[in-house]
Amino acid sequence: MKQFDLLIRNGTVVTASDTVQCDIAIAGGRIVQLGHDLGSAREEIDASGKLVLPGGVDAHCHLDQPMPDGLKMADDFESGTISAACGGTTTVIPFAAQEKGESLRAAVADYHRRAEGRAVVDYAFHLIVSDPTETVLRDELPSLIRKGYTSFKVYMTYDDLKLNDREILDVLTVARQEGALVMIHAENSDCIAWLTDRLEAEQKTAPRFHAIARPMAIEREATHRAITFSELVDVPILIVHVSGREAVEQIRWSRARGMKIFAETCPQYLFLTASDLDQPGYHGAKCVCSPPPRDRANQEVIWDGLADGLFTIFSSDHAPFRYDDPQGKQPGGQEVPFRYIPNGIPGLETRLPLLFSEGVGGGRISLNQFVALTSTNPAKLYGLHPRKGTIAIGADADLAIWDPQREVVIRNADLHHAVDYTPYEGTRVKGWPVTTLVRGKVVAHEGKMQATAGHGEFLPCALPEMAKPRYRTSGGSL
Ligand code: URP
Ligand code: ZN
Ligand code: ZN
């Protein structure tokens, strides 16, 4: 009788702290032994010459999120998670978004219906709080947090989602009371609207003006304001999708004051610049996202922040809209002024290879930092560790087996999302995840799906240790 379900032999096993040669024994979907000469299994994978990493945890992606104004996200839980799996990601955390006037519980129930039976990798939900009524603050939010929805995003911009300062303080107060983590989209809405109106008055409506309407100063101001809220309420926050120097400086300043301000960045701030919004015709719409990509000097600032620990996590912010689609980047079939272009770019499948190639291959971050930023830290930050995000006895056998020598030219035709473009078309990378396992089952191998929709399970999240307050306030007793 064979002892294990699966043995992964001869690989180099990498975690956030260690790199070791050892075999991995898997039974019942979990890692049960690490070592040498472990015995026999019903199946074996020979990982000679390969790296065995914890599967990626993409803690910021948008899948099948209901959209206003006839827009539609291209990826649902099936295509999105297939794409994730083929890119070495084994857990995704998309957003159950509350519409204004809607109950938060109803938004969560609706989102479960969208996910159920479709995902191939495991998933948890963040919440998006867009209408913090008394009922939401006193009843719905606390009760959802206790049921495993322990993180939520608030927006300082976008008319259909944004909260005012007072509302954000109220949401942060609930997070502090309950031990949840708030993610903040930090851009100053009024400044964007003012700049947009001025640009439109001068007929400056092409996609490239999106970046001009959202300069770094408005991200800096909002980041500083969010940090101030965190200080007043004495609760840690995460600033999502940080784009460049100005926001980075604010976060460094807050850290130097001992504050628990976490930060996330994304591939678009390393591999794209504002000039990618200035493509012939309307093609720049493909790279319209917020905050917008900046310039080469700012890319270096982001690389420095990844290398020196300023950034805790590296996520895709996959927000999939097809280019040639009336429900996507050309709403109603038109090339529209930039204010109407849906924000967001695809990136679930390319997140890890891009960072691996340029970050690890380019000598900017170590392999262990790569694992920390893309898997271990997001699992810790959102209450999924140690079940997810590491290779350890008892952890889920969520693994990505990488060929560090594999050279790939990224082509949209080879990706598995339902978007009709990738902003990284033609980019050469070295290193690619060839086999991805979720709870011990191979879900993707050499770009082919090996699992059926529904293999992915919902993960309730624990209260994140990292969200604990410092128990200091500058704003009086709360
Ligand atoms: O442009 C972006 N980032 N779109 C997705 C929504 C968000 O703000 O994360
Ligand atoms: Zn955002
Ligand atoms: Zn996002």
From TrEMBL:
Record CDD domains: D-HYD
Recorded coiled-coil stretches: none
Keyword Phosphoprotein applies: yes
Post-translational modification: Carbamylation allows a single lysine to coordinate two divalent metal cations.
Pfam families reported in the protein's UniProt record: Amidohydro_1
Keyword field: Hydrolase, Metal-binding, Phosphoprotein
Keyword Hydrolase (UniProt): yes
Listed cofactors: Zn(2+)
Residues making up the signal peptide according to the UniProt record: none
InterPro entries with a match to the protein in the record: Amidohydro-rel (IPR006680), Hydantoinase/dihydroPyrase (IPR011778), Metal-dep_hydrolase_composite (IPR011059), Metal_Hydrolase (IPR032466), Metallo-dep_Hydrolases_sf (IPR050378)
Cellular component annotations (GO), alphabetically ordered: cytosol
Residue ranges of every copy of the Amidohydrolase-related domain listed in the record: 51-443
Annotated SUPFAM superfamilies: Composite domain of metallo-dependent hydrolases, Metallo-dependent hydrolases
Modified residues (N6-carboxylysine): 153
One GO molecular-function entry: hydrolase activity, acting on carbon-nitrogen (but not peptide) bonds, in cyclic amides
Stated family: Belongs to the metallo-dependent hydrolases superfamily. Hydantoinase/dihydropyrimidinase family.
Functional note: Catalyzes the stereospecific hydrolysis of the cyclic amide bond of D-hydantoin derivatives.
Protein name per its UniProtKB record: D-hydantoinase
Species for this entry: Cupriavidus cauae
Lineage summary: Bacteria, Pseudomonadati, Pseudomonadota, Betaproteobacteria, Burkholderiales
